Amino acid sequence: MTLAKLATTLSTLALGLGWCAPVLAADWSQTEAQAKGQTVYFNAWGGGEAINSYIDWAAKEVQSRYGVTVKHVKINDAAEVVKRIQTEVAAGRNNHGSVDLMWVNGENFRSLKQAGLLYGPWAESLPNWGLVDLNKPVRSDFSVPTEGYETPWGTAQLTFISDKAVTPTPPRSATEWLRFAKANPGRVTYPKPPDFHGTTFVKQLLLELAPNPALLQQAVTPQAFASATPALWAYLDELHSLAWRAGKSFPASAAAMHRMLADGELKLSLTFNPNEAANLISSRQLPPTAYSFGFTRGTIGNVHFLAIPSNARAKAGAQVFANFLLSPEAQAHKADTRIWGDGSVLDLGKLSAGVQALMRNKAPGALAESVPTLAEPHASWVEALETEWLKRYGAR
Amino acid sequence: METRQLRLGGWGQLLALTLVGLVFVPLLPGLYWALGPSFKIVVWQTLLSDPQWSQAVSATLVSALLGTLLAGLITAGLATRLYPSPTWQRLQQRLPVLLSVPHVAFAVGLFFLIAPSGWLARAAGLFLSWTSPPDWVTVQDPYGLSLALALALKESWFLLWVLAALLGEQAVTRQLAVARSLGYSPAQTWRQVLWPQLLPRLRWPLAAALAYSLSVVDMALILGPGTPPTLAVLTWHWLSDPDTSVQAQGGAAALALLLLFGVISALACGVWWLLRRWRAYPSGQRRADVQHPWPWQTPLLAISYAVLAVLVLWSVADSWFFPALWPDGLSWDAWRSAKLAPFWTTLWLALVVSLLSLPVVLIWLEWGPQRWNAVLYLPLIVPTLPLVAAQYAALLRLQLDATALALVWSHLLWVLPYMLLTLVGTYRAFDARLMTSARALGCSPLQACLRVKWPLLLRPMLAAWAVGFAVSVAQYLPTLFAGAGRFDTVTTEAVALSAGGSRQVLAVQALLQVALPLAAFVLATTLASAWGRNRKGVR
């Protein structure tokens, strides 16, 4: 971002910020006072350069504005953090745990909430909550009600990436995907579940292939699983025989697939961020001919959240940081494809024109078409699908 | 005088035991806490019926056995052909540099080299006019062959280095001359005279190589199979799973690694015993050597230098997609925007750990009960995972996890033994007459040690310090567990980036990982020669 552009953005934002006069001003100023001088250990996936540098930026901002020190603890999998919180609480560390704020959604949120390991409710009393777009699924996380135990941070939608130079017409449904694999044997694959992207791809296929997709919005039962999944396994059996390394091996992550796409080892890649391809083009990770696309009948979309563990040490600091991340300024900066390109959770109508324009700005390579959003299946399906997948395909 | 000496000895021994005890003793309850839940039949039943189990074990066995065996063969082959010769001398001089390339950086470089879109495939593609990478299974192959190759190359340097030290101690040249005068060829001499003496002395380094290969996680994440991964990677996943029953399964898998190690070692000992009985009396027939032996050291060194070269090239590459043999352009962007926090963390950590260890090792060598050295070496010949799990369990109970202190403590467990191993030979070989002379001139035992012995041993002490520094830099699992993920080092950063993301950024972190130990070795050599310039007796 050029300096001049940053300056105009900041000035429009300064106007926007005055808007959010909080009802709970007194309480909130108390929280801010408590937060001053605290160190917040923010546990968030650390595998993306763009995301890491965005978090660095946000950390610097809250340091200078609120005197809160944020340390980004880079993790590979939020499940590890869930484990650490459990172990700490089991060992009696009830108020000085090692995690103050975590990036979470779906299954991990469900298990933390069920086990009573979350602090809250706090999310809906943040001053910036008033700007949140309540039409987005910000109060339900994989069909589990959030009830103020986590605050939305960004939106995501399953998006596919390809290279125009090699693949001018991409597949736009599960059926076309299989046909594409037949025409291009060995050049199609997906990350190995339980990798988050891999599991999402499997869920996407399930949504299209299940005879009664409505079942997937309920908690999984053995009967529902038995009736919904046979078509999926038959599909995967066929797809794997045509896939990269004959489906006997899978890439570890979507990021690894982007690399393979860039080198032409694969013809299709996938991401949960509609702007990621644009981002990768600008950082020379993908050729300029790369582009994003979705399925005609829609792809899975969801919201990702921030939660505070019950044994967090710096709860006030965590809330101040979370509130900053929800501010129009931070959300606009995040939505900028040159920064991260993660979708905003704010209601555009409540923002100033300058911020709106910034959020609508699209860079080459980003998802240009409008793809319908499909709701995530209930969180309990994740584990059932992953277990069965590992049983069927986890070993050659 | 006599009582004073006793008192000093007694206090010294107490100090040595306390210092080493601080590193080792918390492991015992830790092992109980970490692995206790795994001693249930049902845990083992789920482990053995896990669909990934059998293939994970076979990939582990293939990579570990093949890796160790190949490393041994490379070492043996090179020594047999090259010792003694100027080529051997040159190889020996290059070893410290090669050894200082950490496992992770080497794995990353090898990945850039042999992946289907790697440098070798690009070079081949130039002649075969490929437009997309071949559908080859090179890296992350299901049997762990590429992991075995990486381990073999990396461990062969370690074994060569140990062997070079052993050859320096033994009167090998004289034996070679005698055997040659009796008409035996050098190869026969090695087979029948030297290896039977040297192999038993190489058994601990070989065991260390095996233990390392069995439980390596960082290299296996980069080069090993994924569907399913090796047992060590699975164990690590399970140990960090939120579900306590899966954690118990991870504990059982860690024990299984230990068991595998025990069984393989026992089998190896058995084979050695059989060989000794079977080939006890060589025939005495003289055989001629091959006249122009193939220079095996050349490909070994070539791969190593190519690995470093491809890392350097990636770190300064602009966009660089298959099938381009060279980057579209060169740029310093990846270096300019490199994140240096992991570098500084690694630097202070390795400095603190190695500088703490050096006095501890010296006190142990001077006053500690030497018969217990074997216990101190255990971390080197035992798979890492159970130990890391034990450390983490102990730290958790002490509420010390995720602290800098915990991180330093966790590294000591591996740094101490390596430094002891490096130093023990020269320390034992120290000429006792010098100490006697010092005492005769009126020095107290402590004075004699501080003013005569330790200064004279400065060169090996510096070498040991550099080794300790390098070992700390390379630690992956202890850093992750004890640091609770809060401390990024160049090693954890490189492994995290290897899963995806910018190859340029990855190359920079890998090179930073190479730079640190290399700088330590250079510093140690420079200081040692500066110290020894005007002192003839300082070796």
Automatic annotation (TrEMBL), chain A:
Keywords linked to the UniProt accession: Signal
Pfam families: SBP_bac_8 (PF13416)
Signal peptide annotation: 1-25
InterPro entries registered for this protein in UniProt: SBP, YnjB
Protein name per its UniProtKB record: ABC transporter substrate-binding protein
Naturally occurring in which organism (per UniProt): Rhodoferax fermentans
UniProtKB/TrEMBL annotation, chain B:
PROSITE patterns: ABC_TM1
Keywords on record: Cell membrane, Membrane, Transmembrane, Transmembrane helix, Transport
GO cellular component, one term: plasma membrane
GO biological process terms held by the UniProt record: transmembrane transport
Gene3D superfamilies: MetI-like (1.10.3720.10)
Presence of the UniProt keyword Aminoacyl-tRNA synthetase in the record: no
Annotated TM spans: 12-35, 55-83, 95-123, 143-167, 204-224, 252-275, 296-322, 342-365, 374-394, 406-430, 456-477, 510-531
InterPro entries assigned to the protein according to its UniProt record, in alphabetical order: MetI-like (IPR000515), MetI-like_sf (IPR035906)
Places the protein is found: Cell membrane
Topology term for the membrane: Multi-pass membrane protein
Residues annotated as domain ABC transmembrane type-1: 57-268, 343-524
Chief site of localization: membrane
Protein's name in the database: ABC transmembrane type-1 domain-containing protein
